From TrEMBL:
GO terms for cellular component: cytosol. The keyword Ribonucleoprotein does not apply. InterPro entries: UDP-GALP_mutase, UDP-GalPyranose_mutase_C. Keywords: FAD, Flavoprotein, Isomerase. GO terms for molecular function: flavin adenine dinucleotide binding; UDP-galactopyranose mutase activity. This is UDP-galactopyranose mutase. Belongs to the UDP-galactopyranose/dTDP-fucopyranose mutase family. The lineage of its organism: Bacteria, Pseudomonadati, Pseudomonadota, Alphaproteobacteria, Rhodobacterales. Its cofactor is FAD.
Length: 384
């Protein structure tokens, strides 16, 4: 894609492509510093994949593109989001169904005792698991080795192997160990999914949160608007939060993504008793069922909305969800990054713009940092 020469007039507008969290936060930071921003998004709503909307049939607030739970260890990011929306207390707990039994995740003392039919105390469980772990693996090179090293083969095969194969569409030994490092392992009965001290749900959903971030007189938002180079006419800078390879019209090939399909169904009352039930067995085709009303336990609804979630490789035109950062993608990514670095006045940020598996708090922190750097440099920024 080409674009006209940048407008170097003081405070010339900035074009932000994408009205998800990255684009909204970046635009807000620039707007507050006096830079007018034009935020465009191809979709009919803001919020990107965090988008939430009420199901017209049940009234339940649905996480349209799958569950999003805000959690962070960063007090500044928590202060930032709570400026724009009222957050309600929500502690994420996940169950998993494996071989006909239900367990708590992440693996904690209850999971271990239930799985092995034992009554171990914390230090006993730690010692016991050490006997299960494959200590011949000193530096795990992939997901499978990471699991075998830390929890051993039995727990790996019951909880991680089938789920991961379904989620990523490849053998766990082809995946980086870092994916498993997202999940804690605990020798207490604490079954909170995340370790972070700040955790919650925006009372009116993530779309309302994003709208509030964008509600500034210096920000103009155009929805249903796909990027074309003429939109950059007169702009000082472009912040691109869409897919990195998409900016270059996929000229070097496509970066791989997993996409998700959701099969919606409704029921009366409570369908599964929790927000997220994972399905660990390989012969069940979906990875998990999300029952959205449990994300808002302060609301009352007679009916319930659930999503069965299926993961598959993204084809052209599918919504990209998880970047697949295997060896081939890493090599292609390097080539796109090299191209991006040659561009002046275009910066790539966010999950799609940098092709990384980002949590919401990191997305916000990075967008704020990019804005701060842009402002500190008087309206310029290194291109990647
Ligand atoms: N995972 C698994 N079994 C589970 C839950 C997670 O094997 O029941 C693995 C899976 O490979 C997943 C990774 O752990 O991609 C990270 O899980 P997390 O819950 O962080 O994934 P998210 O829901 O955020 O995509």
């Amino acid at each position: 894609m080409t674009r006209p020469a940048p407008n170097t007039a003081p405070n010339a507008p900035v074009l932000v492509v994408g009205a998800g969290l990255s684009g909204a936060v970046l635009a807000r930071e620039l707007a507050e510093a006096g830079w007018p921003c034009h935020v465009i998004d191809a979709r009919p709503h803001v919020g990107g994949n965090c988008h939430t909307a009420r199901d017209p049939e049940t009234g339940v607030m649905v996480h349209t593109y799958g569950p999003h739970i805000f959690h962070t260890g960063d007090a500044a990011t928590w202060a930032y989001v709570t400026r724009f929306a009222r957050f309600r207390r929500y502690t994420h707990r996940v169950k998993t169904t494996s071989r006909g039994a239900v367990y708590g995740l992440p693996i904690n003392l209850h999971t271990i005792n239930q799985f092995y039919g034992k009554t171990l105390r914390p230090t006993e469980a730690e010692a016991f698991l050490a006997t299960q772990a494959d200590t011949s693996i000193t530096a795990p090179r992939n997901f499978e080795e990471q699991a075998l090293r830390f929890v051993g083969r039995d727990l790996y095969e019951a909880f991680f192997k089938g789920y991961t194969q379904k989620q990523w569409g490849c053998a766990p030994r082809e995946l980086p160990a870092a994916i498993l490092q997202r999940l804690p392992l605990r020798f207490t009965y604490d079954d909170s999914y995340f370790n972070h001290p700040y955790q919650g749900m925006p009372e009116d959903g993530y779309t309302a949160l994003t709208q509030a971030i964008l509600a500034h007189p210096a920000i103009r938002v155009s929805l249903n608007t796909t990027y074309t180079p003429d939109l950059a006419d007169g702009a000082r800078h472009i912040f691109w939060t869409g897919a990195l390879d998409g900016y270059f019209d996929y000229a070097l090939g496509r970066l791989g993504y997993r996409t998700l399909e959701f099969e919606r169904f409704t029921a009366t009352g409570d369908y599964q008793g929790c927000a997220v039930m994972n399905y660990a067995d390989a012969d069940i085709p979906y990875t998990r069922i999300t029952e959205h009303k449990h994300f808002a336990p302060w609301e009352r609804h007679a009916k319930t909305t659930c999503y069965r979630e299926y993961s598959r490789a993204a084809a052209p035109g599918d919504i990209p969800f998880y970047p697949i950062r295997l060896v081939a993608e890493q090599a292609l990514l390097k080539r796109y990054v090299a191209r991006a670095k040659t561009l002046e006045n275009v910066s790539f940020i966010g999950r799609l713009g940098t092709y990384r598996y980002l949590d919401m708090d990191v997305t916000i922190r990075e967008a704020r940092a990019a804005a701060a750097q842009f402002l500190a440099q008087g309206g310029t920024l290194a291109p990647f």
